[in-house]
Amino acid sequence: MADDFEKAVLLSFDHTGAVDPAVKEQAVAYCEGLKSKRECFALFVERFTASQRLEVKFWCLQALLEVVHTRYETLGTETHEKFRQTLMEWIGSEEVATQPPLVRNKLAQVVTAVIQRDFPKRWPGFFRDLLTSIQKGPSMVDMFSRIMQTIDSDVITLDIHRSAEGGRLSMHLKDSLRETCIGDIVEAWYRLVTMYHSDQPQLAADVLRTVQRYIGWMDIGLVANDKFIPLLFNLLGSRHAEMQECSVECLTEILHKRMDHSAKLDLIQKLNLLPSCSQWRTELPGTDDDDLKAKCAKLLSTLCNEIIDCWKIFENKLVSFKAISMELNKGAAKELNEACTVCEQMIDQLFPAIMAVLKDPDKSVAMTVMTFLTAYVARLKNFQKRTNAIPEKALAHIRCILDGLAMCSRYPDDSAFPPGQHSSDLEKAAALEEQCSVLEDRRELLTLFKNLARIATNDTIMFVSERLDAVLANPQSTFQNVEVFATLLFELGEACTDEIQKKHCGLLGPVVLRLMQSNIPNSNHRLVALVVLEIYVRYAKASVTNGRNLAGVVATFVDSRGILHPVETVANRACYLFMRFVKITRSALKPLTMGILSSLQPFLQQVAQTPKVDFGGPGPSTFSVANDDRMCVFEAAGVLLGIEDMQAEDQKQVAVMLLLPLKVQIEGSLNAHNQQSLLLVQQALEGISRLSKGFKQHVVTTLRPELGQLFLQCLELALRVPQVFPESKSLRTRFISFLHRMVETLGPQTLKYIPNALEVLLHPGCDVADMIEVVAVVNQLTNRFTNSLEELMERVLPVLVAQIHSKLGESWDWSGALCLPTKGDVQKGALVEENREKGDLQKAYYSLLHVTVSSKLDGVVLKLPEATLKVILSALIEGASSHMDPAVRKSCIQVLLELVDGWADRISTDQGLKWFVMERIGGDVCIQGIFRGGLDPKDATTVAFLTEVGGMLKLIRDKCGYEFLVHLNGTVFPKMGLPPEFQTELVNRIQVADPKETKNFMKAALMRLSR
Questions:
Q1: How far apart are CA 87 and CA 108, in angstroms?
Q2: HSE of 206 in the Cβ direction (CA atoms, 13 Å)?
Q3: Buried b (16+ CB within 10 A) or exposed e, 935-956
Q4: pLDDT digits (tens, 9 = 90+) for 318-338
Q5: Which is it for the CA torsion 73, 78, 83, 85, positive or negative?
Q6: Which of 265, 717, 835, 976 has its CA 20 to 30 A from that of 244?
């Protein structure tokens, strides 16, 4: 059996592919089967000892571990005792000492699993025996460290999530160790480190790593004493970097130990770390080849964090006592003040070292002190609130922090960013990775910078001004220096909002002006160019102080530093920023307008003729010019051109200069009728739309009607676009957007073109998504031109209603249930997407009817042909009575309210209409639709819907009189099976109560029914 067992284990471990998969599977099954046998425990113990194969030893230990975890208690006392003896023999055996780490680590896991169950009750002498065995030499010390570390990771530490039982076992083991032997274990650690740190530093380092794990929960006095601390300090000077790192980590853990703040301050003083840490003001210990530097930085940061935390607590106690006028004896006050003074002195002593860390070239080292600096600045902020001042010493610290933040925020000296285009994909990837890293660090760095600017505004502005002036004065300044101080200037605008609101940007204005008037070093570098343009937009008010400044800024935007920059991403961003700048400084740009527009014309023509194509999926390429930032320059040109007091002839001349090429491009592309022409038409339509945004309606229709005629000519031409390209959805979408834009620009002058536009859009091939877009156009028109639209709506509404119902189909479920996402195969998913679009069309349909009646065009609806009105009413009643969205129900019933009110004179004479109102609206919508379920009375939208229902019931009662109440009692209520007392109360509410009370009654009824 032994041979079969060993063979099976070896086969199960095969990863070469040489073993037949079926054979390997059979071997695995055989091995797994052994674990369930009663005698397996003895087998695994025997084979671990007897086998010489590493795989077998490892498998046996893993199998033993599983047995201990799953059925250890079933093995019996005798087996437990024998297994514990065997484990101790293995721990101290020479054979185990020669095994590779993976076997020794697995053995440590097995020992830990038994300890978790047997210590201290069934195995009280384990740690005593273990401590005795370490005298056997280094191999036993190694095993000791592995076991203690595994006990921490597998049982004790709560850094990983544990079940309630796991947490209980963790606490039980810690308590047991505290009560029995933790002091002896710490004493053993001390002796082992002392014994081996010189000759076998790796072994001593492992011991210290174990110590570090246990400091957090054991009595701090066991290590923070006159014996252990000198040893740790002695190891700081070791020639072995690993020993230094481990000693630093132990000291850091000691500082992290939770305790009362007075005790923590005493501990810090007792550790006497300040003399050593303050020496790091020149250089941190360690090299680039080890982790010592980072760990020393963490120690320093932890020390300062603990000090400032104590300082904050002591100060808060003093402030609290004063705030509540509590009597504070002189001794207590003196102690608190002395403690604050000690903390302040400690921070002052350590501050140069903190600044040295912040300026370290290694960002992972520098960023370790950010937690302390954030806490320090927060303390200054609170101090300023209490005293309205900041001490001079703190201002000196602030200036040092600002200097460190600037250095830490720089791009590295060996930056992967080229000034222009990336020469290869590899260079591009390296630059992107670098940028992500810098921006990630800057999120924290710049937040701290802005907090400093808010509490020390003048000092921060002065710092940025001096450093930026120095950089600008040196033609050899690197792009890193220019970019970082320009970035700080930009960020000041967010921190010092009060200054920006002042005339010419207050104290920041002169700083910005000097930047605008300077010959900026590396101005064409992509990073510098971007931040400079961002500054010009944020501080646009500063540029209007005189024409020369303004002209220089505009030149930056429109030349190779801006929209003509060789790097595409910079040029695109410049286009967007230029548009924003123009909108802010529009009035001040009047003297420069003609020159700017003339200089932009070649660029605009180039943009119009070079659309960007988005190959977003299979089939023909799809393209959306709305994603092209270059189009922002068209909008900027429109803003400049739309100035009211511009000379009429000049305005018309430039408008023709800009619009004529776009019209010619559309005409030529319509004749060509190919894929490229489709893209050119979209680009031209977007260009015209963007230009039109700069013109107010009264300018193009009243003051300068000749400008309106130019846009009307463009609209007439655009009407041909969907006819020539009926199959292009992207172009159709662009045309509808263009139509929206012309309605806003030209106002009522567009109305005569709308019928033709809708006729083109409602072509036989239009789908559900197309219909939604058409309805949006009609809604816009209805909202804008209420008084002028009656005739148009009489022509358009029947067509729209017919098309909508045709698209939804006769079997459409008006409740909206089909629009809900469901789990299933791909075909079901596609069907849900189709139904979702139909659901959106249904909502757009209701919106169309709602906008129509709300715009006092309910007469148009009531005068529709009987067949059309019938399908509208049916759709409204279905939506109001059954839709899953209470907002849709509310919209439907609001439309019905307007229609019922419009039938006021007919209801009393037309019995058929009266019955329809009482049965379908009063009964189906207002009663049965409410109580059939599906409404949440706690939802605010449902409550709003119930308010409309109350109003509808009152209106029907007023129009139909007592006959409506009889209809409810005789026809509606019997079909619902509601309690008689409820029916009586509801009728009484409808008959005499205010609609608000009816709403409250129905809400309360729904609450009772939903329980």
A1: 10
A2: 17
A3: bebeeeebbebbbbbbbbbbbb
A4: 887 766 655 556 667 788 899
A5: positive
A6: 265
Q: Give residue 763's identity as a one-letter amino acid code.
A: H
CA distance 770 to 768: 5
Query: CA 273 → CA 232, 359, 970, distances in Å?
Result: 11, 22, 92
**Inter-residue contact 577 to 537 (CB < 8 Å):** yes
The secondary structure of residue 700, as a DSSP letter, is: I
At residue 26's C-alpha, the angle toward residues 24 and 30, to 5°, is 115
Distance in angstroms (rounded) separating the CA atoms of residues 734 and 626: 9
Task: Report the SS3 class of residue 942.
Answer: helix
Q: Mind listing the pLDDT tens digit for each residue in 704-734?
A: 999 999 999 999 999 999 888 888 888 888 9
The predicted structure's pLDDT at residue 281: 93
Q: List 622's β-bridge partners, or say none.
A: 614
Pair 766, 774: CB distance under 8 Å: yes
Whether this prediction's pTM lies above 0.90 is answered by: no
Phi-psi region of 747 (alpha: psi -120 to 50; beta: other; left: phi over 0): left
**Is-contact 140 134, C-beta < 8 A?**
yes
Q: Sign of the CA dihedral 845, 846, 849, 855? A: negative
- Cα-based distances in Å from 22 to 14, 30, 101, 653: 12, 12, 32, 85
H or E element: which one contains 24?
Answer: helix 21-34
Q: CA–CA separation, 388 vs 825, rounded Å?
A: 67
Q: Which of 654, 777, 608, 636 minimizes the C-alpha distance to 693?
A: 636
Q: In whole angstroms, what separates CA 110 from the centre of its chain?
A: 44
- Is the distance from CB of 800 to CB of 833 less than 8 angstroms? no
User: Can you give the pLDDT at residue 555?
Assistant: 96
Q: From CA 984, how far away is CA 227, in angstroms rounded?
A: 90
Please tell me the distance from the alpha carbon of residue 166 to that of residue 163, in angstroms, as a whole number.
Answer: 5
Q: Which two tokens stand for residue 213?
A: 């794990």
CA distance 369 to 301: 5
pLDDT of residue 823: 45
- What's residue 593's pLDDT? 94
The DSSP result for 701-762, as a single string, is III-HHHHHHHHHHHHHHTTHHHH-TT-HHHHHHHHHHHHHHHHHHGGGGGGGHHHHHHHHT
pLDDT at res. 625: 52
Report the pLDDT value the prediction gives residue 513, as an integer from 0 to 100: 94
Contact 998, 945 (CB under 8 A): no
CA gap 201, 206 in Å, rounded: 9
Which ranges of the chain have pLDDT less than 50? 1, 616-621, 623, 823-827
